[in-house]
Amino acid sequence: MKAGFVQFEPLFGEVDKNMEKVEKLIDNVDADLLVLPELFNTGYVFTSIDEVAALSEEILKGKTTQALMRMAKSKDVFLVAGIAKKSDDKYFNSAVIVSPQGYIGTYRKIHLFFEEKLWFDPGDGNFEVYDIGKYKFGVMICFDWFFPEAMRALSLQGAHIICHSSNLVLPFCQDAMKTRCLENRVFAITANRTGTEARNGKSLTFTGKSQITGHTAEVFYQAAPDTDEVGIVDVDMTIAENKRLNEYNDIFEDRRPEFYKRLLRDSAE
């Protein structure tokens, strides 16, 4: 399976230009699965709830999802792309998943980072795995990587590869994803953005270095920190079905959940 990422620098509020940029980047690309950055169509540094409201879209009716479905059909590719979702009077930092046949699903980011908490509601769904025929993939967004439970939940549901739309500003994720993949024996695609976004006295610089990580912590491909590029690797997904570390250890069968209960907070306490 040919799987990879699209890395570029979105322009804040320029939805049409950002979608045009993505379409141009993938025009001559041959891939089965591509992951786009978090909030790829809008940019990241919001300064008011009015901006969030203006740039959030209903998923199926929104022009971004419609454009993604058109691209997926034209290129015969599965796409995972981060957008701001409007749902009644709530707004979610989300990832939309589309196939050549159309819309598949939406993931709403569960672990919000920094000022995202000012603008978005936390995700209220589960970590879902999507079946694309012979293989399955799970979806996370950016700061979800900080919580090992996220990738473990997806891996336990049979995900071969984790699609990780990101706007990373901390320097740790690319290295941490090696461990996340190793401890679950899965593959991962971290699609990050580049550039510095400065608005109304607020500024964030994004780390780029989008990455495709293997099940034994190897990095198959890593982008530069500041380039527009599409990175693709031919991955043998069946390897992720084997959870054996050696002849005596299977990392899932060896789990002892009965001893992990203390890790769960009891809301009644």
Q: Please, could you describe this protein's structure?
A:
The protein is an alpha/beta fold and 269 residues long. It has one domain (2-244): Nitrilase/N-carbamoyl-D-aminoacid amidohydrolase (4-Layer Sandwich). The chain has helices spanning 15-25, 49-55, 63-75, 116-119, 148-156, 173-184; strands at 2-7, 33-35, 78-87, 90-99, 102-108, 129-131, 136-141, 161-165, 187-191, 196-199, 202-205, 211-213, 219-222, 229-234. The chain has a six-stranded mixed β-sheet. It has a six-stranded mixed β-sheet with strand order 6-7-8-9-12-13, with helices on one face. It has a two-stranded antiparallel sheet with strand order 10-11.
Brief write-up:
The chain is of the alpha/beta class. It is built from six helices and 14 strands.
The CATH superfamily is identified as Carbon-nitrogen hydrolase
Major beta sheet summary: 6 strands, mixed
Q: Structurally, how many domains make up the residues?
A: 1
Portion of residues in helices? 10-25%
Q: Give the low-confidence spans.
A: none
Strand order of the largest sheet: 5-4-3-2-1-14
Order of H and E elements: EHEHHEEEHEEHEHEEEEEE
Spatial separation of the terminal alpha carbons: 47 Å
CATH topology: Nitrilase/N-carbamoyl-D-aminoacid amidohydrolase
CATH architecture: 4-Layer Sandwich
Number of helices: 6
Beta-strand content estimate? 25-35%
Counting DSSP E segments of at least 2 residues, the number of strands comes to 14
Radius of gyration: 18 Å
Q: Compute the average pLDDT.
A: 96
What best-fitting shape do the alpha-carbon axes yield? globular
Structural class, from secondary structure content? Answer: alpha/beta
CATH class reads Alpha Beta
